[in-house]
Each structure stands twice: as structure tokens, then as C-alpha cells.
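User: Round two. Same drill as before: sequence, then structure, for each protein.

Assistant: Same drill it is. First protein:
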Amino acid sequence: MNENTPDTTLAAESYYGRHIFFCLNERKNGEECCAQHKAQEGFDRCKSMVKAAGLAGPGKVRVNKAGCLDRCAAGPVAVVYPEAVWYTFVDTHDIDEIVESHLKNGQVVERLLTPPGVGR
């Protein structure tokens, strides 16, 4: 196994090698939220790219919707597990880079990392 391949031992234990969760929370009271920043578009793009690249399925990658991840100030956000890497993205090019670099090749996209202290 190389560094670019999800750990199959971990995948056997957790079913998927990696999960990416997209906050799609929408606040009804007008407060800032990821849904206001095209989070659904990012999710849709990631899901279709992962599937098209053959990265989806058991032992591979699962793209999930999430409610509030409590990092609204950095929104939109997504988090990749098991590495617990938080990303802030603004467009489809950012999603493309996360899929290609991190989900496919295991390389964190440093420029898209959510600053550690940014919360709600």
C-alpha cells in the first residue's frame, strides 16, 4: 500500500476509507450559515466527481451531508475523516482540488484548510 491509497485495515474497521462531510445547515433566523455560501453545490460537485473517478464505495470514499458542524464563520466547510482535516471552499475548482489531491491521492490541500480557531 502507498500513501495515496486509503488504509484497507482502517477501511475494514470503518467500512469506508474516508468520509467527507459537507455542512449544509440552513439557519431560518437569518444567521450566517454554510447553506448561504453554495454548500449544496460543493456537495453535489464532490459527490459526482468521487463517483466518476471510481472513488466511491466500501473501502473507498463516502460523501455525506451534515447538519451544522459549528464552524459557520468559515463557511462553507467540509471535513475529511479519519484525518479530521477541515476545509473551507468557495467554488468548484476548490472541490476539484480536494477530490484530486486529498480524496484520491491522500495529499492535504493546505491553501484550503479552515483556520483552527474559527468556530461559529
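Second protein:
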Amino acid sequence: MKLESTLPERPVFLFVVPAFNLFALLLVFFLLGPSFVSQSGVAVELPVSRFQMERQADATVITVTAGDPLGYWVEREPVSLGQLSERLDARRGSDSSPATTVLLRVDKGVPVEVQRNVAEIALQKGLRVYLLGQPESVYAAEEKK
């Protein structure tokens, strides 16, 4: 006895489903990709540094911008120098993401004394402080412009 299917063959579905999965994966990559790469904080012109560090997952970004008056930012929220200590206490005490590291981004025109004061505030809270800079190759490219 010879068994034969009465339904017509449709091999198109064997190719459509994996192609749909591939397009869905590419869509997710392009939608979420920039959020994995971008840094938090406010855009500033960093001084040159020859050192690199690994990415910190639990870091709080403090940005000091040049100008009159100086601008202080915790992540993307503006704060005053007096509120900085309170904001660090709140970030350190939160159960969802307790901060242990501070990434300090200081604009080029900010005096060193201000940078030191902000770093001391974070160090008094028991946090590790990293001062961020830009690679020399980025600085050389900007100088040519």
C-alpha cells in the first residue's frame, strides 16, 4: 500500500518563520542598541587621558559643567553643590541599585579646586571616585577641526 498526501506541499513556511525571527532580532538590536552604548550624564568636553577603565555597572555619574555659575549634575538632573551630598546618600541607600562608584566628568574650563571638592564629597560617603577623560586620539581629531 502506497501512502500519499492529498495536501499540496508548502515549503514556504519553512523559510518565512526563520526570516521573520531574523527581522525581529534586527529590529530589537536597532531599537535597543544605542541605549547600551550611550553614557549617562550631560555632554561636556573632557580633558585628555591616556588611561582606560572597564565599564562600571553600578556607577553614579556626576558632571560639572563650566560656565558662570558652574553646573552640577547627578546623572541628567541638575543639582546644587549643597544638594549633591543628599543626592549621593539617596543613590547609595536605594535598594534597587546601590551605588558604590562615582564617575566624575568635569568640563575642561572647571577649576581643579571644584573638581577636588566634588570628589571629596563622594569620598566622604565611602564611594570610589573615577575622574573621566577622553582618549588622546579623540583630542587630536578635535584639534585638527
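Strands lie at 59-65, 71-74, 77-79, 101-106, 128-131.

User: Perfect.
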